[in-house]
Amino acid sequence: MSAPSVSIIIPAYNRASLLRDALESVRRQTFREPLEVIVVDDGSTDDTEAVILPYLPWVTYIRQKNQGVAAARNTGILKAVAPYIAFLDSDDIWLPHKLERQMEFLRQKPETGLLYARMWSYDVETPDKKRLEPRMIARTFEDLLNGPNCITTSTVIVRKGCFETAGLFDPTLPAVEDHELWLRIAKRFLIDFLDEPVAEYRRHKTSTTSEPVRLYEGYRRFYESILKQYRQEMRDPRSAERQLAKFEYLCGTAALKGGKAKEAFRLISRAISRDACLGTQFRDEKVKGFSGIFLPLKPYAVLTVSALRAIG
């Protein structure tokens, strides 16, 4: 059997109902060179294994204890043998020309380390209401550092050598592990963009973005990390500081609701020290009257509550 040209990493955790669609979208690829398909089951408790069985041995199936999507992707990267690595989340779908178009692009531009593209985004309950993303494009490290994460993982192909230099996904950054790794890669290699849709991003109730507490913690650690590493290269480090303060506060309020008053006090007091006007970040133009006036003071009130509970 010929060596694969592309290794495809599919992390899966309790997505049995959507995983088959993802696998079938790989089978429908017009790219005719050999592929290595690796599914990393991150400790699923549903029928994920049963979904995979009919695809063996076409699929390499790896099962591990639940460690999060970053660790699952890392397991796949370390197992992969092809010179190019593509990612497909188990709840997303590739369009048939995805690999063909991107591999053609990469072979014409051997200096490119990471290539991403557009994708269609929609809720699984309303697939007819599609939106083309991303709206903003990053082609340099500076673009990616000073703007939003416009690189969707299921559209990405990376030369394997990039991981040997830049490292793997950071498992301590839930929800934003991809953005942090793209920054490390973009710092060291050229990144580029294929201006056409190659995938479908399907939002649903169990997606990572539907777990707010994990998002808050991931973003808090993310902003801590980039401020420490890249502050001098930021156009507006104060803006990143304010974002960090916001997510420290949100993590603090979550800790308070969870009965962890001391942790809540530590996080909220740190957030206020970074941004004394923290409450204005949560201002809603629809909120009028006394509630709107009180909003800038709310973090101080929550800080007081956490302090009283911590010593109570």
Task: Write the topology of this structure.
Elements: E1 6-12, H1 16-27, E2 35-41, H2 48-52, E3 59-63, H3 69-79, E4 84-87, E5 93-94, H4 98-108, E6 112-123, E7 131-133, H5 141-145, E8 157-159, H6 160-166, H7 177-188, E9 190-203, H8 212-230, H9 237-257, H10 261-274, H11 289-294, H12 298-311
Parallel strand pairs: 1-2, 1-4, 2-3, 6-9
Antiparallel strand pairs: 4-8, 5-9, 6-7, 6-8
Please tag this protein with its features.
312 residues, alpha/beta, Spore Coat Polysaccharide Biosynthesis Protein SpsA, Chain A, 9-stranded mixed beta sheet, 44% helix, globular
Give a verbal description of the structure.
- By secondary structure, the chain is an alpha/beta fold.
- The protein has 2 domains: 6-204, Spore Coat Polysaccharide Biosynthesis Protein SpsA, Chain A (Alpha-Beta Complex); 212-311, no CATH class.
- Helix content is 44%, strand content 18%.
- It contains 12 helices and 9 strands.
- The protein has helices at residues 16-27, 48-52, 69-79, 98-108, 141-145, 160-166, 177-188, 212-230, 237-257, 261-274, 289-294, 298-311; strands at residues 6-12, 35-41, 59-63, 84-87, 93-94, 112-123, 131-133, 157-159, 190-203.
- Strands 1, 2, 3, 4, 5, 6, 7, 8 and 9 form a 9-stranded mixed beta sheet that branches.
- A hairpin with a 7-residue loop joins β6 and β7 (131-133).
- The longest helix has 21 residues, at 237-257.
- The model has no long low-confidence stretch (mean pLDDT 92).
